[in-house]
Amino acid sequence: MQKVIAPILSAFTKEGTTDTRRLREHAERLFELGVDALFLNGTTGMGPALSKDEKLATLRTLSDITDRLIFQVGELNLENVLELVRMSKDYSILGVASYPPYYFPGLPENWVVRYFAEICRTSDHPVYLYNYPLATGVNITSELIKKVGGQNIKGIKDTTADITHPLELKFNMPSLEVYTGGDRIAAVSFASQLDGVVCASANYIPHLLVKMREATERCDLRHAHELQSVIARVVNAAAKYGSLSANYSLVRLILGHDPGLPRRPVYPLGRAEEEALWKEVEPVLAPYL
Ligand code: FW2
């Protein structure tokens, strides 16, 4: 079955420390609402803002409630990355994941290949690659994956706006699980028989993504596309205020529980911004809640 995976928000307190109680409550709610698995420490989970110990704490907290976890470990110090990969052996999870080394311009492809190869060699778990070229400056292609050559590469989470990219990955490597990360291409991803979605909106409207998958399964593409337009309108509204922060507000406004706060420099929305966001989103979502 195609999966709806939530790149779970990381919960922070007002003081900027991690809030494991709220993280856990949010995770439990997402599973109740039909999410199939969680992607930890991703973009929506503010992975680049988390220390090694904080990433591990996310895993420790959520492994108490489920083994349906993909543990994202990427950062710019490979020693830390590999230490987390080694530590993940003590946990029963779906796999480890990493984005490529980011920020440094002009990294030779060969270094990216070596980075992922070291993760594959170190990991006892399946490995998932996280492709988000807009954020990392590196594009993971099927040629690059073949050069890494890790037998334990299980899948890729592809956050590109263009559906032809994940499709090409799937066509060139049919046994690879290919998940799309873009909220605006979820319906086309399901309809294209890719392996599922890992998108930010799964934090606040997971039930709409589940309904979209169900509509696709019964070949009701008209309904799947109707849901897609709803999700796109919500995501577009969130983007105006800064999606990374609006995601937290939308969990509170739509699902009714408190997922904690983002961590600065992702500043929480102020009251006026949150009201303006809800004024836009509420009428769009009302028929579907
Ligand atoms: C993550 C995701 C989804 C993102 C997408 C872009 O880790 O947050 O790639 O929402 O912001 O997989």
Brief overview, please?
This protein is an alpha/beta fold and 289 residues long.
Draw up the topology in text:
Elements: E1 3-7, H1 20-32, E2 37-40, H2 52-63, E3 69-72, H3 78-87, E4 95-98, H4 109-122, E5 127-131, H5 133-136, H6 142-148, E6 153-158, H7 164-172, E7 177-180, H8 186-191, E8 196-198, H9 206-217, H10 221-241, H11 243-255, H12 271-285
Parallel strand pairs: 1-2, 1-8, 2-3, 3-4, 4-5, 5-6, 6-7, 7-8
The chain binds L-2-keto-3deoxy-gluconate.
Q: How would you sum up this structure, described in words?
A:
Strand 7 (177-180), helix 8 (186-191) and strand 8 (196-198) form a beta-alpha-beta unit. Helices cover 47% and strands 12% of the residues. With 289 residues, the chain is an alpha/beta fold. The chain is globular. The longest helix has 21 residues, at 221-241. The chain has a single domain, classed as TIM Barrel (Alpha-Beta Barrel), CATH 3.20.20.70. An eight-stranded parallel barrel has the order 1-2-3-4-5-6-7-8, surrounded by five helices. The two termini are 24 Å apart. Helix 4 (109-122) crosses helix 6 (142-148), helix 9 packs antiparallel against helix 10 and helix 10 (221-241) crosses helix 11. L-2-keto-3deoxy-gluconate (FW2) binds next to loops.
User: Which small-molecule ligands are present, each listed once?
Assistant: L-2-keto-3deoxy-gluconate
CATH class: Alpha Beta
How far is the first residue's CA from the last residue's CA?
24 Å
Enumerate how many helices there are, as a single number. Answer: 12
Stated plainly, the CATH topology is called TIM Barrel
Query: What do the pLDDT scores average to?
Result: 98
Give the CATH architecture.
Answer: Alpha-Beta Barrel
Tell me about the biggest sheet? 8 strands, parallel, barrel
- Class based on secondary structure composition and strand pairing: alpha/beta
Radius of gyration: 18 Å
The 3D shape can be described as: globular
Strand content: 5-15%
What is the number of independent domains? Answer: 1
Number of strands: 8
